[in-house]
Write a structure and sequence with these properties.
Layout lengths: L1 H22 L5 H35 L8 H27 L30 H18 L2 H40 L1 H5 L4 H26 L4 H4 L3 H10 L6 H10 L5 H14 L2 H19 L5 H16 L7 H5 L1 H8 L3 H45 L1
């Protein structure tokens, strides 16, 4: 049954991508306005649900932890940061090794401009992602330390409501949201005209994403002493969702479904780690942004950043990534000030980084969200070891 549901999810997601790409070039003004408004409203609805998902799952999960094992929160934050800066250093080493030998284009063509949206319905979330994350941590720890059973039961019920919203609202709407995204990309001509320009660079980055996912799952398997394939094999629908939405937040519901199917992950741990890592673990974005800022620096300014500057940039970028929202381009938007102040990029440099980042943002997001499964395996093993130590 679960396999059939997963296959249906994959079919719907792929269908959304294909339909969007096919209809994009033929959109007229009326249909274009409908798609623009639909995409905006669906995106607003997704962003509205994300803080509720974080609050519902994280509070309930933390409250069920043993008080002494609440250290898993610090462990999860630490491995997310280490993975992110590790991905950045890996990307930087690739940049220094490969970029000087590539004939990199010096400019990118622009596609058609999208018209102004005539109908715009904003649905502001109750609070932003980081506020919900910190609030969930504080409430969860408060319930854990006070052992307040009434609050624990209340948030368990709230979690069930959120889970129903994910399964009956978020997941069914994702294929339509994906189709709208790809239709607009196809209409603008981003895929047709811009992709060939930086094709080599983008392919290198995508390959780096795949390698880093392999590194994470290998390390997770060694640390946990369990087969990491038992986690990775369930992440097909999640990967495709991330490709279509370009948002780890929008992929959160499917990611939870994938994690729950694994035999080596515990739901009481993944209900906390998956929403947590979706907001603080951005290894794919780190690989992408590090490699692309090096590329743009070489293209526009004729040199790569010196190693000391890049090391500091990656260390600080990892901190910025911890606070970046799980929305398309969130890590890049959060770190634009870092790019201008440390690397000295001007408006042209920022515009070029934004352009090529957007072309592969979906692959970076997919790397982020699939990598979360590896970190969840580590967190599960860490929790099990903590429980064994306490039992001795």
């Amino acid at each position: 049954m679960l396999k059939r549901l997963a296959n249906n999810t994959i079919i719907r997601l792929v269908s959304g991508v294909i339909i969007g790409l096919l209809v994009g070039p033929y959109l007229n003004d009326i249909i274009l306005q409908i798609i623009l408004s639909t995409k905006h409203i669906l995106g607003q609805l997704i962003l509205f649900l994300v803080p509720l998902i974080i609050l519902g799952f994280i509070v309930s999960s933390i409250a069920k932890l043993d008080q002494k094992s609440s250290v898993i929160i610090g462990f999860s934050l630490a491995i997310a940061y280490v993975s992110s800066i590790g991905a950045g250093f890996f990307s930087g080493s690739l940049g220094y090794s490969i970029l000087p030998w590539l004939d990199i284009p010096s400019a990118a063509t622009t596609g058609k401009a999208l018209p102004t949206m005539l109908f715009k319905l904003d649905i502001p979330p109750i609070f932003d992602v980081m506020t919900s994350l910190v609030l969930a941590l504080m409430i969860g720890l408060g319930i854990l330390w006070t052992q307040s059973k009434p609050l624990e039961i209340a948030f368990d019920h709230f979690r069930e409501i959120v889970l129903l919203l994910v399964n009956r609202v978020l997941v069914p709407l994702l294929p339509l949201y994906i189709a709208c995204n790809f239709a607009l990309l196809s209409y603008v001509g981003t895929i047709q005209s811009q992709l060939p320009i930086f094709l080599i660079v983008i392919l290198i980055v995508i390959l780096a994403h795949i390698i880093w996912i392999g590194v994470l799952y290998t390390i997770a398997g060694i640390y946990s002493k369990k087969n990491p394939w038992e986690v990775l094999k369930h992440y097909g629908p999640t990967y495709l969702t991330a490709l279509g939405t370009m948002s780890s937040a929008a992929s959160l519901g499917v990611a939870l479904q994938s994690a729950h199917k694994s035999k080596v992950l515990k739901p009481e741990i993944t209900n906390f780690t998956i929403p947590f890592f979706s907001n603080v673990h951005l290894c794919g974005a780190m690989i992408t942004e590090t490699f692309f800022v090096m590329t743009v620096s070489l293209v526009l300014y004729g040199h790569l950043p010196d190693m000391g500057t890049l090391i500091l940039f990656v260390l600080l970028l990892g901190i910025f990534a911890l606070g970046a929202p799980g929305v398309p381009g969130g890590a890049l938007m959060a770190s634009l000030g870092l790019i201008t102040s440390m690397l000295g990029f001007d408006d042209t440099g920022i515009a070029l980084v934004l352009t090529i980042f957007a072309l592969q943002d979906s692959f970076g997001t997919a790397c982020n969200i699939v990598g979360d499964g590896a970190l969840s395996l580590m967190a599960t093993a860490f929790n099990e070891r903590q429980q064994k130590r306490e039992a001795q």
